[in-house]
Amino acid sequence: MLKMRKILYVLLIALMQCLDASAQFAESITAFTDKDCYAAGERIQVSVAVQDAAGSMSDLSKVAYVELCDARSMVAHAMVQLSDGRGWASMTLPSTMHSGFYQLTAYTSNMRNIGTSVFHRSLVGVVNTFSLSSRDNVKFVAPKPKEMVIRQTYNAGQKVHVSLPKDSCLAIRTLSVVSHPLGITMYDAPEPDAASDVADSAASGMTADGGTVSVSHDEPFFMPELEGHIVRTMDASGSVVSTRLSGVGKGLYIFDGKPDGDGNWSYITHSLNGSLPIVLNGYDASGAPVRMQPLSPYAQVMPRALPLLEVGCTEAELKKRGACAQNEMALQLSVKADTLKHVETFLSRDPDYSYDVTEYTGFSTIREALLEYVKGVSRRKMEGRNCLFVSLTEEKGYSRFPALVLLDGMPVYDVEEVLAYDARYLNYIQVYGGSYTFGSTTCHGVISFITKKGLLSNYKLDAGTRLVRYDFPQNRPSLTLPQGKSVSTVYWNPLVDALSVDFPAPTQPGIYQVVLRGVDTRGNTFTTSSKLEVK
Fold first, then answer.
1. What pTM value is reported for the model?
2. Which of 59, 330, 373, 422 has its CA 20 to 30 A from that of 412?
3. 353-452: CATH superfamily
């Protein structure tokens, strides 16, 4: 009897530990947008908050996913970098969208293991002011009579203070100031269809032409993203034994692939944000190159049906929002590509030798440049192939093992190709001693060649290397909104957590809508709005 009690006690302790572990991984999520209704071509500003089982901001997941879908497809999406459970992102709405309601969904990878029932869902209205579509699910009605609303008047740029009652159990999470708002009838998002639960669905992959390929999984497991976004790829041949993902540019970011056990590979990335070019390398057991297929990171949760969008506005108000959308599209086109920042530090180490090639006499090939003025690098054959080696101070000589050779951050395995590369494209040569580990691989020294543009200028990729542009999580993008242009959202604060908030009055005269969104102590969301006039 005593022995049985001990066994039951051990089982109870084990059960409590399991429950405690599962509680640590439990998360809930809320997402708030800057408006309820948008014109096609405008940008959606979205703020995300992730909480743990205790109701505190979660520090488990570092990435949240946001997608906008109708009943047929996903039309916009974004990844959000989380810091202490909070983050925000921006999504541009295609100008070809049909008018109607869309479902906004937010979740983390960790939440996908539970299913779609724990995802955040809300509805967002979109009106295409440029064209009509057979798929439009919108009805324009006469605007409601203007109520006599008490509104305060401010001078341009004057500080505005808004607050909730001090005894309120609410917390403001976001604030937006909107010009030319469209009045719509709002509904709760439809309940998820049990048959569409992510735990029983297929993962999707991106094809070269932008399409998707489905990969079946009986019980997919999505790892919590503790550092950064986990990129997943598919090995269509089933023969890959090693693969890497590298960020292309003037920084150095390399991640080894890890097999998922179902024919796919994962790369646990960190420090990569925004839209970036990357390369994927794949090789079989004989060293022959194999192309890797990127998989879509999104669950693509689509509602079965959406309610009719009823818009109450005048023709003049609709034209004003159409002008706002045109201005936002023009602003997007005028944004210049960011200049890639040059980073010398590699895994917290500065280079032993660093050369700005533009300060030296030009050479036609990298082979000539290495021979003439680069220290700490030697070239010799190993197993019949040319390899590069770096000098190691601790060994007082050159390493016995080949160095890792990089061109704009991309590993180059055929040294002859890089030696014959036109040195006139180069900007920097950086040489690092020491040993470095990438997953299960160790390299002895690194030689990094960086071009002036940082984009593999005029370099021919081998058959196993794929160059793609990938949208990594947005890391708290700038909140600066254009002044002097007619845009709909003139102010947006996605990081409020208080009963009150201050903001500057808009610079242009007019009447604006101030929208506060937040949660109560039980996690229920609320929205309240008011008017202000700027003279």
1. 0.87
2. 373
3. TonB-dependent receptor, plug domain (2.170.130.10)
